[in-house]
From TrEMBL:
It is an enzyme of class 1 (oxidoreductase). The lineage of its organism: Bacteria, Pseudomonadati, Pseudomonadota, Alphaproteobacteria, Rhodobacterales. Substrate binds at F47, I48, I49, Q50, H51, Y109, R113. Heme-dependent dioxygenase that catalyzes the oxidative cleavage of the L-tryptophan (L-Trp) pyrrole ring and converts L-tryptophan to N-formyl-L-kynurenine. Catalyzes the oxidative cleavage of the indole moiety. Belongs to the tryptophan 2,3-dioxygenase family. This is Tryptophan 2,3-dioxygenase. Homotetramer.
Length: 277
């Protein structure tokens, strides 16, 4: 006779022969059988799970960004703000995740690095979609997806849509009654800082009460970029810690390439305007 506590006696559902269970709903069979280490190295599982979970969070970030952009196209600020805050929190979550990966030493990594071949996060189509959705549209980086027409056309479709920053600039232009040069609307190029845009943001920051929606939007964007920058910085620091200045498995210079990416500015005028106030 056992006196162990039995939640079933208090009504907990205990049989799922005919009912959808937790695992069924979440398709855990598919998720938990998607880890296939290529070596016996103990740390390869950490490496795989860290990348897979990052990809899942990126999937959610894309879901939120796409919806927020759509809402902003209809001047529907409130729910869009909630989603943009969520994206910043996702990056915060990804930032904390580096602490787990940092427990892997260079000696641990070399036990399986050869097995990766040329695969690298550099080929993450979701990461590239996030960059394109935000406005950093370097089309040279599409080439690594040419062997996958489905992913390639997903990236092309994203480039045909205005980015989140394009949408923000449309709102800024309309609501402050300014006219921006046509180059602010180019869809297939990274956004370059434009003096008229900075001046319009300056109007907003000098009089937040009159332009409260734009003011709040600007701060949401800065917040998002702040967390995104921290992700880039954590990545490059972890990479230096693990492989030093070796070339990346994707074939770039490695740390020098990633340091160059630290210079990317998603919403440049929003950072510049701070110095003008
Ligand atoms: C020990 C762990 C890691 C190392 C040594 C590493 C190394 C690198 C290197 C050297 C690059 C430059 C491209 C190349 O030549 O390969 C790169 C790019 C990239 N990695 Fe990692 N990485 C690690 C972990 C991660 C994780 C956990 C993620 C999460 C998904 C990730 C995502 C990316 C992305 C998205 C890029 C492209 C960045 C860009 O183009 O701006 N990496 N990584």
């Amino acid at each position: 006779m056992t006196d162990a506590y039995d939640p079933g006696r208090e009504g907990a559902q205990m049989s799922f022969a005919r009912d959808m269970s937790y695992g069924d709903y979440l398709h855990l069979d598919a998720v938990l059988t998607a880890q296939h280490p290529l070596t016996d190295a103990h740390d390869e599982m950490l490496f795989i799970i860290q990348h897979q979970t990052s990809e899942l969070w990126m999937k959610l970030a894309l879901h939120e960004l796409t919806a927020a952009r759509e809402l902003l196209c209809h001047d529907d600020f409130r729910p869009a703000f909630k989603m943009l805050t969520r994206v910043a929190r996702i990056f915060d979550q990804l930032n904390s995740a580096w602490d787990v990966l940092r427990t892997m030493t260079p000696s641990d990594y070399t036990t399986f690095r050869e097995s990766l071949g040329h695969s690298s996060g550099f080929q993450s189509h979701q990461y590239r979609l996030i960059e394109y959705a935000l406005g950093n549209r370097n089309t040279n980086l599409m080439k690594v997806h040419e062997h996958r027409p489905d992913l390639h056309s997903m990236l092309r479709a994203e480039l045909d849509r205005p980015s989140l920053y394009h949408v923000a600039l449309d709102l800024l232009e309309r609501r402050t009654g300014t006219a921006f040069p046509a180059r602010t609307r180019r869809l297939r190029a990274p956004h370059q800082p434009v003096a008229e845009v900075e001046r319009a943001w300056e109007q907003v920051y000098r009089d937040p009460r009159t332009h409260w929606d734009l003011y709040e939007l600007a701060e949401k964007l800065v917040d998002l970029e702040d967390y995104f920058r921290r992700w880039r910085f954590n990545h490059v620091t972890t990479v230096e810690r693990v492989i030093g200045f070796k070339r990346g498995s994707g074939g770039t210079s490695g740390v020098p390439y990633l340091r160059k990416m630290l210079e990317v500015e998603l919403f440049p005028e929003l950072w510049r305007v701070r110095g003008a106030l």
